[in-house]
Design goal:
Length: about 100
């Protein structure tokens, strides 16, 4: 994107605070957009398109492609034949021990 939002804001003659006020955000958020740290949410695209004299399609075409997040899953609990969770021997043997 390389300073896309910065260039569009400057071409429109707006300050970060003006863009932020129109979008209902703060100027730090606008700064993050300009530095490619964040990208505006789709519900803000019509507002930004009007401010920057571009189309929503222009913004959509610049939206970064995110890879799907990996979902972390826990392994299934191990159960003995009786259906009771088994406890490792070293934990069971020290469970009642006093620590000096």
């Amino acid at each position: 994107m390389s300073n896309y939002f910065y260039k569009k804001r400057k071409a429109a003659g707006l300050t970060q605070k003006q863009v932020a006020a129109a979008a209902g955000k703060n100027h730090e958020t606008v700064s993050a957009w300009e530095r490619d740290i964040a990208f505006p949410r789709p519900e803000l695209w019509p507002i930004l398109a009007e401010l920057f004299h571009i189309t929503v399609a222009d913004l959509e075409s610049r939206r970064p492609i995110r890879s799907p997040r990996k979902r972390i899953t826990s392994p299934p609990a191990r159960c003995g034949r009786s259906g009771v969770s088994s406890t490792p021997q070293h934990v069971a043997s020290t469970a009642g021990a006093k620590i000096s």
